[in-house]
UniProtKB/TrEMBL annotation:
<dbReference type="InterPro" id="IPR042114">
    <property type="entry name" value="GatB_C_1"/>
</dbReference>
<dbReference type="InterPro" id="IPR017958">
    <property type="entry name" value="Gln-tRNA_amidoTrfase_suB_CS"/>
</dbReference>
<comment type="similarity">
    <text>Belongs to the GatB/GatE family. GatB subfamily.</text>
</comment>
<protein>
    <recommendedName>
        <fullName>Aspartyl/glutamyl-tRNA(Asn/Gln) amidotransferase subunit B</fullName>
        <ecNumber>6.3.5.-</ecNumber>
    </recommendedName>
</protein>
<dbReference type="Pfam" id="PF02934">
    <property type="entry name" value="GatB_N"/>
</dbReference>
<dbReference type="InterPro" id="IPR023168">
    <property type="entry name" value="GatB_Yqey_C_2"/>
</dbReference>
<keyword id="KW-0648">Protein biosynthesis</keyword>
<feature type="domain" description="Asn/Gln amidotransferase">
    <location>
        <begin position="329"/>
        <end position="476"/>
    </location>
</feature>
<dbReference type="InterPro" id="IPR018027">
    <property type="entry name" value="Asn/Gln_amidotransferase"/>
</dbReference>
<dbReference type="Pfam" id="PF02637">
    <property type="entry name" value="GatB_Yqey"/>
</dbReference>
<dbReference type="InterPro" id="IPR014746">
    <property type="entry name" value="Gln_synth/guanido_kin_cat_dom"/>
</dbReference>
<dbReference type="InterPro" id="IPR006075">
    <property type="entry name" value="Asn/Gln-tRNA_Trfase_suB/E_cat"/>
</dbReference>
<comment type="function">
    <text>Allows the formation of correctly charged Asn-tRNA(Asn) or Gln-tRNA(Gln) through the transamidation of misacylated Asp-tRNA(Asn) or Glu-tRNA(Gln) in organisms which lack either or both of asparaginyl-tRNA or glutaminyl-tRNA synthetases. The reaction takes place in the presence of glutamine and ATP through an activated phospho-Asp-tRNA(Asn) or phospho-Glu-tRNA(Gln).</text>
</comment>
<dbReference type="InterPro" id="IPR017959">
    <property type="entry name" value="Asn/Gln-tRNA_amidoTrfase_suB/E"/>
</dbReference>
<dbReference type="InterPro" id="IPR003789">
    <property type="entry name" value="Asn/Gln_tRNA_amidoTrase-B-like"/>
</dbReference>
<keyword id="KW-0547">Nucleotide-binding</keyword>
<comment type="subunit">
    <text>Heterotrimer of A, B and C subunits.</text>
</comment>
Length: 476
């Protein structure tokens, strides 16, 4: 590659709002459910059925706009975006083109290289389409309208990102903000946060944008990173060969790690937008904005500072824990219950993260209660169970949210502090391992570890390792 190239990336992020009902009707938005059971004449586009706007959708969109430093459009309205596709029952989508609810915002991101602001061009409300299910056995496509009419906000960034690292930092920041607000769970695997990547390349130093492509079908941060790298290389290869980059929408196949064209990129006029005749404009008062602003929670940045000050946590711990609202809430509640914030942090940073990774789960999926984590911390700190038993019990707490106190009692896992019983076991271990005893007396410290291990095994792990250590030394 003789020339140096710069990648220019902008994102369109669709976020499903966490309202109980759809944007223009009272059908449930719950994920899953039997096909076409969360539907009515409005969200299946029946003739004569009229939309009624869900006020909560407007509030959630305003909250997201304010938290990302956007200006709220105080007189905004809906438009019809016309397109014909089987998963779109009315043959149009109700969206916002001309007067979106929020504009001109930004979020601040931090990567290894720098801090920077990624500008948000606009944020608009719209309804989701249904879902096509392709049946290869029957060679046909079926449509499920459960998702049709689920409220979305689309967050359109400026082309301010230059690498996959910056894109992931931006998406993580957005996800954290939206989860803290409670406006969306942002689960990529369930489609409640979806990102389309607009990407072009240009020679380093050039101010002109290259021809961009849009990539769809990206449902994990790893897929987004791979897609960016794959598309960047594809475009550079075309330019190096003197071939043009075609403006089009491409679909990323994460298994093959390749994107292929879906259709040429439409422009706004192709959708024949016009004002939605069945919905009146939305008038947003200063008072309403102030009311939404006043409900803002403590966000991650403030929590990190407070955790360092109030709980004396290292910054690293505070950043990891506050990266997920679920984990931050769990930490605060458990710390309050047991009064041991650093110990709670250790369990979350260590065993919890390990088990989440092993089970391929997100922090939002943590299944156990703060009460049970606090009880486990108390049991360990009081010396009722030792650290290896605590880990064994925690695995059970993680899997089934069992009550650790009850579990320890029922399974006889309490640490044995009976000196007489322990001395008896230790004397047997010493008598049965003359070589290890001789090695230890000859200055080999490792030999003590072997004797401790055998004693713990004989005690079924229910002794205090420090006490075993001490008593072995006394008895030899």
């Amino acid at each position: 590659m003789s020339k140096q190239y710069e990648t220019v990336i902008g994102l369109e992020v669709h976020v499903e709002l966490a309202t109980k009902t759809k944007i223009f009707c009272s059908c449930s938005t719950e994920f899953g459910g039997k096909a076409n059971t969360h539907t009515c004449p409005v969200c299946t586009g029946m003739p004569g059925a009229l939309p009624v706007l869900n006020r909560q959708v407007v509030e959630y969109a305003m909250a997201a706009g304010l938290a990302t430093n956007c200006k709220i459009t105080q007189r905004c309205k809906f438009d019809r975006k016309n397109y014909f596709y089987p998963d779109n029952p009315q043959n149009y989508q109700i969206s916002q083109l001309y007067l979106p609810i929020a504009r001109d915002g930004y979020v601040e991101i931090e990567t290894d290289r720098q801090k920077k602001k990624v500008r948000i061009h606009e944020m608009h409300m719209e309804e989701d389409a249904g879902k096509l299910v392709h049946d290869e056995w029957e060679d046909c496509s079926l449509v499920d309208y459960n998702r049709s009419g689920v409220p979305l906000i689309e967050i359109v960034s400026e082309p301010d990102m230059r690498s996959a690292e910056e894109v992931i930092a931006y998406l993580e920041k957005l996800r954290t903000i939206l989860q803290y607000l409670g406006v969306s769970d942002c689960k990529l695997q369930e489609g409640s946060m979806r990102a389309d990547v607009n990407l072009s390349v240009r020679e380093a130093g050039s101010t002109e944008f290259g021809t961009r492509t849009e990539m769809k079908n990206l449902n994990s941060f790893k897929a987004i990173s791979r897609a960016i790298e794959g598309e960047r290389m594809r475009q550079i290869e075309l330019l190096e060969e003197g071939k043009p980059v075609v403006q089009e929408t491409r679909r990323w196949d994460d298994n093959k790690e390749y994107s292929y064209p879906m259709r040429s990129k439409e422009d706004a006029q192709d959708y024949r937008y016009f004002p939605e005749p069945d919905l009146t404009p939305i008038i947003i008062s200063d008072e309403w904005i102030a009311e939404v602003k006043a409900k803002e929670p403590e966000f991650q940045t403030e929590k990190i500072s407070r955790y360092q000050e109030e709980y004396k946590l290292p910054r690293y711990d505070a950043e990891i824990i506050t990266n997920s609202k679920k984990m931050a809430d769990l930490f605060e509640q458990a710390a309050e219950l047991c009064g041991q914030p650093k110990k709670v942090s250790n369990w979350l940073m260590g065993e919890t993260m390990r088990l989440l990774n092993e089970n391929n789960r997100e922090p939002e999926d943590i299944p156990f209660s703060p009460e049970n984590l606090a009880k486990l911390v108390n049991l360990t700190e009081a010396g009722i169970i030792n650290s290896s038993v605590a880990k064994e019990v925690f695995e059970k707490v993680f899997a089934e949210d069992v009550d650790p106190e009850q579990y320890v009692e029922e399974h006889g896992l309490k640490t044995v502090n009976d000196e007489g019983a322990l001395r008896e076991v230790i004397e047997k271990v010493i008598a049965g391992n003359p070589q290890a005893v001789a090695d230890y007396k000859g200055g080999k410290e490792k030999a003590l570890g072997s004797l401790v291990g055998q004693t713990m095994k004989a005690m079924k792990g229910k002794a205090d390792p420090a006490m075993v250590n001490e008593m072995l030394k006394q008895c030899m």
